Every structure is written in C-alpha cells, then in structure tokens.
Amino acid sequence: MSALPRVVITGVGLTSPNGNSLAEFRRNLLAGVSGVKPWTIRHVGETLAGQCDFDALRWQKRKELRRGTRAGSIGIWCAGSALADAGLDLVARDRSRVGVYVGTTEHGNVETENQIHEVSQYGFDLAYWSHHHNPRTVANNPAGEVALGFGLTGPAYCIGAACAAGNLGLIHGAQMLQLGEVDLALAGGVSESIHTFGIFASFRAQGALASHPDPTKASRPFDRARNGIVVSEGGCLYALERLEDARRRGARIYGELVGHAVNSDASDFVLPLAERQNECMRAAVTRAGLAPHEIDVVSSHATATPLGDQQECEALRAVFGDSARTHVNNTKSFIGHAMGAAGALELAGNLPSFDDGYVHATLNVDELDPACEVRNLVMNTPRQLGRVDAILNLSFGMLGINSAVVVRRYIG
C-alpha cells in the first residue's frame, strides 16, 4: 500500500478578537494583549465576550451581507485572506477541485432568535418572517456562503463537532486531499456564537459563564479563581495542499500536518473524561511517528471551567509526564472560547513558533490551581525555546468529542 500524500499549510486567513491576520494575532499573543471586552445582548444584558472587527466589505457587497449570516461573513473573510496569503489565484484554477470544509457549533441559533424577536414586534404575524431564514440556518451555510462568494464549485459543507469542530474541519480537509477528492482545501472553523443570547443564558444556568470586573482578566484557564467561559466569535481557515502541488508552484509552507485523532468519551453530555483525552492525544502523536517527549508545544483546550481544566491536566500529566522538552500554553486566555473556530484559531496562534521559537503564554494565571499543575506550563510571559519542531493542538467538545492534530516544521 502506497504512502498517503503529505499535506501542508500554505495559507492562513483569520479574524479573532485581538487580530485580523496571522501576524497581528501572533504579535498580540506575544505582547499579552487580550481581546475580551464588555458585551450586551438581548435578554441576558451586560456580560463579556471576544468580539471581532474586520472589514467584511473586502470580499462582500452590502447586499450579500444583508442576505447572509455573520458566520458566513466570517468564513468569507477567512477564505479570502487564506487564498491571498497563499498566493493562490482562483482565475487560473479548476474551481471544481477546491473544497471548503468548515467546522461549526451553534450555527443557525442567531438567525432563528432574531426572526422570533422580529415577528414578536408585530404580534407574531408570520408575514414578517424573512424568506432568507432557511438558507441562513441550514447546517452547511458558512461553507456554502464561501462557495457562493468565490464561485467555488467543488464540495463545500460544514462539520458539526461542538468545540472540537475547528480541528475537525482541518482534519477533514487533509483527508480529502489525501483521497484525491480535491486539489486545494479551505479548512478550519468559524463561530458567530456571541450573537445568540441562548449560549450565554445556558452557560449562566450551568454556572459556567465567566465574570470579572476587568474583562481582560475574565478568561483565566488553570487559575485557582477561574469561574467559567468567555464566549467569543471568530474564524480561521487554512489553505491546505498536497506537498507536491505546493512545491510545484513554489509556495511558502507554514507546516506539515503529520498526525491526527478523534474519539468520544461516551460518558456524559458535558463533563469531560481524562482517560479518553489521553487516548486521543497518544493516538495523534503515534500517527505522526513521534513519541510524546518529541512534542515541543501543546496548545491546550482548557476553557477555564473548574472540572474541565482539571481533567485535561490529568490527561496531559499522564501523556507527557516529566518531559523537559514539552511546553503547554492556552490561547483562550487571550480571546475567550470561539467555539467551532477555537481549534483552528488556537493552532494559528502557535504556528509561528516554527519561525520565532517562542511559546506564547497563558494569561491571567495569578495563582495556579494545584490540580492544574503540569510541567512547563507557560504562564503570563512568553518563553523562548530557540527551536520548535512539533505542535500538538487539542480541542474537545460537548457530548464527549475529542480531537488532536499534530503539525510539524516542514522539512523537505
């Protein structure tokens, strides 16, 4: 059996609460700049959120913005940015060979909530219900809006995987390239979650919605005083290509996807299970042809919920033990939890480590919870390693889905 084609990252397009390009995002991560701000939403009132601010009209017309969704607009921004970053000209490509694979979580809630509110202003007269509601709320909307926006006629659909969806989009895109289904994949995740009051109300009902007098200090994974999740919007799509195609056109290569794994806890609707997370990490690292001690950076999933962080740290200790080489950090401490976009954004936050040798810090760890102690947890200040060769990106989600992706420094 012949070896599967190698898959590499040749472009990154993102919008996050603290940056709209990979360079800006990375700069703010290294500088300790948070993107969490006050946020007010219907029925919930004043809360906190990670909010994006990008120029949606760069790749969309005003009419398209009015007809479409926030998630679709985020997807279009990310796709256009990834194509531009990769130096890819769609005019010269067979657009039927371009695939769009977008991880999502809560898509559709925003539009339904807005429509119910709209008709409530008119005595629930459904004559005021928008005929755009159905295409806005179907599960494939964000990927479909990307395909429409750029005239892509290849496969374009979404992967629902709770908060592991960003990693799953990336994994799926790589698999489709290896199977020969497409020649270019735009893959990752998007989230419009801050625009649905339901997600805030539900986390508040669970006692899992973060609060803090200083918004920038609200997201605090691993800290003894952590009190829940900061909900955020955002997105990140990668231009993925087979290595031979990227080489042929002389593309810049950010890194190579060398291993991944997905499994399920099958134990609880919400509570994570360290044992299954352990198995998922080990499987991804093994498939990458590495041993745990050869991983330089672990991008943790930790959302700043008390039990969730503890379970993940238990799994990290079991897998990496006393590895002096492996360092652990967390990107949610800067931007909050971007749900379906989280895994894709968090990988992007660490990808430049191959070039600059730094591990960005975890913010707001004023007093480490003893149950979250792991060796080389990078807290509050970035750490210079000199050289980074392998990154393990973790994303876990409700209903017990776990995902792990390993990206290595590209070596020809």
What does this structure look like?
By secondary structure, the chain is α/β, with parallel strands linked by helices. Helix 3 (about 70-85) packs across helix 6. About 35% of the residues lie in helices and about 20% in strands. The strands form three sheets. Strands 5-4-6-7-1-8-14-13-9-10 form a ten-stranded mixed β-sheet, with helices on both faces.
Brief overview, please?
The chain has 412 residues and is an alpha/beta fold. Helix content is 33%, strand content 21%.
| Mean pLDDT over the full residue set | 97
In one word, what is the shape? Answer: globular
Beta-strand share of residues: 15-25%
Measured as a percent range, the helix fraction is 25-40%
What is the CATH superfamily of the largest domain?
Answer: Thiolase/Chalcone synthase
Topology summary:
Blueprint (H helix, E strand, L loop, with lengths): L6 E9 L6 H10 L4 E6 L3 E6 L11 H6 L2 H17 L11 E7 L4 H12 L12 H5 L3 H10 L5 E5 L4 H14 L5 E8 L5 H9 L28 E9 H6 L6 E10 L9 H14 L9 E3 L6 H15 L6 E3 L2 H4 L6 H9 L2 H4 L1 E2 L23 E2 L5 E8 L3 E8 L4
Parallel strand pairs: 4-5, 4-6, 9-10, 9-13
Antiparallel strand pairs: 1-7, 1-8, 2-3, 6-7, 8-14, 11-12, 13-14
Helix pairs in contact: 3-6, 7-13, 10-11
Which features does this protein show?
14 helices, Peroxisomal Thiolase, Chain A, domain 1, 10-stranded mixed beta sheet, alpha/beta, 412 residues, 2 domains
